[in-house]
Amino acid sequence: MRTMAQRIRAHMEPDRIEGLDLGCGDGELIYHLEKELPGSQWRGVEICGSRVEKQQRPVFIWEGDMLQENYRDYTALHADNLCLEEVIANQLEEKVAREFQGLYITYRTPTTPSFFHAAHLLESVGIEATWGVHLVHFYYVCVGS
Which of 64, 79, 128, 132 could form a disulfide linkage to 22, CB 3.0–4.6 angstroms apart? Predict the structure, then answer.
């Protein structure tokens, strides 16, 4: 968690972060990000209602489809998107390229041309996850590039 927060801090001022965790589960990640990045504000959307119901931390999460959300109000997006079907992952990248500007954190190596047109890779860092160390990519995305 600290490594993730350090890398986010390297690219953004915490008090300028309005973050959205796409597929947030029970909100555990955003709870810790708010603690590690004072002044940041995080929200989360999760498609699985039973995961949202397991929320035990004081975080703002809701049940919904990440592909139906508006990304324009956020300055940071986090997507632990390795488990998404290829077609959904591609739709997510296209949506990010169309309507987001800011720091995009992804576990999946992007593949769509529209994403690469709008995004600039800042760094890729090995970060410890529950299943082991995984490469996480930090992009700056500029909508309408």
Answer: 79
